[in-house]
Fold this sequence. Notes:
single chain; mainly alpha; binds protoporphyrin IX containing FE; 2 helices
Amino acid sequence: MRAKPIVSSLLLITFLVVLLTGIALxxxxxxVGKHTITQVHTIIGFLMSALIIAHxxxxxxxxxxxxxxxxx
Length: 72
Ligand code: HEM
């Protein structure tokens, strides 16, 4: 099984969860529910950060190639 599509898909899903829970934290008042949203946001946020590093690791050759093309 190839890692790239799995990492990319998980990155998209975790980004959407972090974005939506981030917006929820922004607009929601203090309360019991906010604690749960904060926990989901923080755990998925760190998972997303690990996936960003994995995504960069798997794609850095393409990235370096694109940076070199800027000069042309
Ligand atoms: C789309 C990206 C993100 C958005 C829009 C976002 C938004 C927010 C917002 C609005 C808050 C509440 C701030 C407050 O009440 O003072 C917050 C708190 C926090 N975020 Fe994010 N965030 C994002 C990404 C991340 C990521 C990637 C991580 C982890 C690496 C993370 C970790 C945290 C933590 C630890 C808190 C503090 C929670 C607490 O009150 O204990 N966030 N974020």
